[in-house]
Amino acid sequence: MHSDLEQLLVLQDRQQRIKQIQTENTTVPLQQKNLEAQLAASAASVEALKQKMRQVEMNRKKLELDVGTRTESISRLKTQQYQTRKNDEFQAIGHEIERYENEIRKLEDEELELMEQADKLKAEIGAEEKKAAATKESISRQMTDLQDKSKTLESRFQELTKEHTELAAKIDEDLLSRFDRLFASKGDAAVVALEHDVCTGCHMKVTPATAMQVKAGREIVSCENCGRILYNAS
Ligand SMILES: [Zn+2]
């Protein structure tokens, strides 16, 4: 094989690995964001339940106050009832007391319902908090893994870039710029094998003349279809 081609192939290998690392690196912040979103969602579901709980507690306190005012009214009415001499007034006050007592019973029933709701919510919050703690732990582990991965990628990137620079310095300038242009435009490979007279870059058969030139290996030959530089695979 042409010695320039051998160098180009090594250069291409490093360049492909560098590109792969860059692609992997772009996913790291996305993965981090995704994990942060999971963490936020988990915290939000606990907070939503706690908010519900606060609402239930507030409603319960309001009911307690309502019961309190009615209890006070009843004791005030009972004093009035005790002091009256008139029978019809005594009875009217009695009805009013009864009305307040009925209201208190209803309020107490509602309070019981709210207490049941609070118990249920308490259990739900407990379960959700447990789940959130597990999520937090798992996410923090994944975050650490991501940071480690990012560090590994970064040091690998530095090594490859250094190697790439050293290799590129040894290659003829014109050939290198031809390679760079091809690599940039094709996105995958600038130098590809010719297998059974077929370019493995574009999968087209080259002309017999081109195939012969590639096999002779005396010059840099391009695929007449896609422009990639060819080397003889057999
Ligand atoms: Zn081709």
Can you tell me about this structure?
There is one protein chain. The protein is mostly helical and 234 residues long. Helices cover 80% and strands 6% of the residues. Strands 2-1-4-3 form a 4-stranded mixed beta sheet. β1 and β2 form a beta hairpin. The radius of gyration is 41 Å and the shape is rod-shaped. The N and C termini lie close together (11 Å). Zinc ion binds next to loops.
Summary of the model, kept short:
A hairpin with a 6-residue loop joins strand 3 (221-222) and strand 4 (229-232).
Gap between N and C termini, in Å? 11 Å
User: So what's the overall shape?
Assistant: rod-shaped
Class from helix and strand fractions: mainly alpha
Average the pLDDT over all residues and give the rounded result: 96
Strand content: 5-15%
Number of helices: 4
Give the H and E element order. HHHEEHEE
Helix content: over 70%
Q: Please list the strands of the largest sheet in the order they lie side by side.
A: 2-1-4-3
Number of strands: 4
Multimeric organization: single chain
Q: Radius of gyration in whole Å, from Cα?
A: 41 Å
Q: Quick one: biggest sheet?
A: 4 strands, mixed
